[in-house]
Design goal:
- There is one protein chain.
- The protein folds into two domains: 109 residues, Acid Proteases (Cathepsin D, subunit A, domain 1); 52 residues, no CATH class.
- 9% of the residues lie in helices and 46% in strands.
- The protein is built from three helices and 13 strands.
- The protein is globular, with a radius of gyration of 19 Å.
Length: 183
Amino acid sequence: MGLVTTKLLLSNPRDASIEPLEVPALADTGSVFLCIPEHVRIQLRLECLETREVKLADGSRATYPYAGPIVLKFKNRTGFVGALVLGDEVLLGAIPMEEMDLVVNPRDRTVDVNPDSPNIATGIVKRIFSAGKANHGQRGSYHAAWIVSRSSSQTVNIDPDRGSRSNPIGGSRAREFSDNVTS
C-alpha cells in the first residue's frame, strides 16, 4: 500500500495558552498508539504520565515515556488520547484512528473520516445486563457498558461505580458476556 501521511492538529487540553501544533503524521494501522517525538512533547508541555513497555515492529521490546493528555483534531473529528514519546515523526496508530472514526484509503493513500458516518464519529458500545434478580420490575439491572474496538482484542469496562479497566477478550468477565461482545 505504501506510506500514508496526513496532517493533525495537536493541543494540550490542560493549558489553553499553548498554541496547537499542526504536524504531519504517518498513519500506521499496524501500530496501536499515537507516537510523538520528544520535541512535540516539549512544545506542547505535555506531562510524562508513566513508562510503558511496547513490542516494536522488529519483535523486540522497549520502554518509552507515555505523555498526555493530547487533543487531536482532524477535519470534523476530535480525539482525546495519550502518546508514546519516541521516534522523529508523529505516528497515528489504530487507537486514535478508532477514537476519531477515521479510515485509511489505500487507493489514494489518504486518511479520511469514515464515509459511513461523515458528520459524527461512531463507535461500538454494548450494554450488558446482569442476569441477577429483577430490579424494580426490570428483567435485569444495568451492570456496565463494554466498549469493543473494531481493531483490537480489548474490551473496556465502563462502570461509573468502579471506574474503567481493560480486559482481554476471552478473560473470565468477557466469557461471561460472550454473546454480547463482538470484535
